[in-house]
From TrEMBL:
It comes from the Bacteria. Keywords: Membrane, Transmembrane, Transmembrane helix. It comes from Desulfuribacillus alkaliarsenatis. This is DUF116 domain-containing protein. The chain crosses the membrane at residues 12-31, 43-72, 84-104. InterPro entries: DUF116.
Amino acid sequence: MDINSYAPKRIFLGLILAFVVLFSTLMYYLWHLGTNQETAIYRFLFTGIIVSGFIVMGFISVVLGSMVVTILRAQTMSVPLLQNLMRITIGYFFPIVMQIGKVLRIQKNHIMQSFIQVNNQMVLAKQIKVPAEDMLMLLPHCVQDANCKYKITRDIDNCKLCGKCPVNDLITLSSKHGINMRVATGGTLARQIVKSLRPRVILAVACERDLVSGIIDSMPLPVYGILNVRPNGPCFNTHVIIEEIEKAIEQFKAYPPTWSELNEAEQAANK
């Protein structure tokens, strides 16, 4: 699935804004209720709740405001703590956003695609550059031909490179760039793989549900999500867009310096 066909980021951001409005309305109602209480203890209790609520609201507003500016201007964030806070915040907001979207009758897949878009923008904003060996391409088992008897879930080298499914091209791509590639049957195996390899960046290919789950579970580890293509329905002989994956690899891969760059660095050091 081409990234240009994902649901737009404004869906997720709009639903977060809806939550902010609802929360602010609730705070105003509590404030109004508290000021009409005659008993001092109730006024004190309501005041405490309202102050706490506005502190939380202020924190959320700063984080979300920074996130919106980052996305709209497609710019980077120079504060690492704020970068991580933005990604963790959208992860915590996701269940709330899904419930608001359900009330507004917005399709689940559209919300999840929008979430993936927002997450990817946050990851790109970090301007991460890592050696190839510190990257992990994590794939679902359904990219392999369902009738193939050489299963690659535990060992990629079992693939015979016949070309009947995308695995051949994916192995070629991972070898070309020197990055790790693994196939997972579910979240448990995916977590084991991540724990074993300890990558600094993950390029994850999956359906909307699995991508969202993996992104949230892995926070604050950067996960760049890429949706698979499902011409035969979910979880069966799925495809991938190789060009989209390679573009993502090039976004994060730290290439060795050229001779001219090395000479310039040496000259600068000798001055």
